[in-house]
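Our collaborator T.R. sent over the components below with a one-line note: 'Predict the complex.' Nothing else. No constraints on interfaces, no templates requested, no preferences about which chain binds where. So this is a plain run: every listed entity goes in together, and whatever single assembly comes back becomes the starting point for the next discussion.
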Amino acid sequence: MRKVFMFNLVSLDGYFEGPNRDISWHNVTSGSGMDAEFNEYAVEMLSDLDTLIFGRVTYELMASYWPTPDAMKNDPIVAEKMNTLSKIVFSKTLDKIEWHNTRLAKADIEEEILKMKQQPGKDVAILGSGSIVSLFAQRGLIDEYRIMVNPVVLGSGNPMFKGIKDRLNLKLLKTRTFRNGNVLLYYEPTK
Amino acid sequence: MTTSGQEESKMRKVIVAMQVTLDGFIEGPNGELDWAMEEDEETWKDHFELMRSVDTVLLGRVMYPAYEQYWLAAPTNPSSTKNEIEYARLADKMQKIVFSKTLEKVEWKTTRIVKDHIAEEILRMKQQPGKDMVLLGGAERAAHVEADKRKDISVRESLTSLRQGIGRLTEKEYEKSIHVQSGITRRLL
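Returned assembly:
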């Protein structure tokens, strides 16, 4: 079966965004462009999947950047992948979708995901989308967690896994340390 | 931490050692610590490495009494493991500083009570020559009680009250909860 995994950047104190949705602390750039090692990882990750899942907030952020000429100039490989991959947005409020190859899902999330898992295909990734992650995690829909811990303590913001009620026990699969100080943790839920 | 590193930075470092959950908590909503990893040889090796890189341990009032009680007794406690005895030996040599406005006295000769002006005191210590200092906090101690907690539910309860000591118990009740624990309170590190 296809795997549904999440990828997100978090601060050392567990926030995926600071106050006012601040993500300026994301440690992924170097000079004026994308950090080369991160970019390499992003390309590799995107090559292993054929579907991306977003909540509304992350969708709007991504849709406002990746189709632009700037993105295609600065990050041509990632932009090409982001624009052509199949994308699903879970939102009850959004009514218009403009990004290429994107579908709006308003139906039952659990049903949608389970159906997708049964279909043949490469892996499915949830990028960012903190509220979707909490929801999916609580319902046991995520097969793998890839959490990139950034070397910063924010002190406040929106915590990853906010609202989770039942303890989620995880098994560490591997770790990867990036030269810029980010540490990527790979977990799967224990069965 | 290498010697050359210390020379470069001039000042002693304060290292915080703690265990946290993936979402950044040091204990559960009811003081639960049962999620902390059990100790194995690799973890002990890591503790020893840390303890050999420092010469001062900084502790809070809630943690200190049990830390002292357990580790002071560990060398002569027949149920101590080899690793515990080694840790006790390292802890004994160490200068220990406990930050507390209320603690009057300690048994451990190598412990000093600092009542106030904590920031100034730490800054002063940092400027003195010496190895680094470690602040043992949060759930760093959790790993060390975990195994025993599984065996004895009363330990879990007393630990919960211990950890909530500052907020919920009066000083007297707190002392009592520590006393009640003797014999069952295990390693607090």
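Summary for T.R.: Residues 1-8, 140-189 of chain B have pLDDT under 50 and may be disordered.
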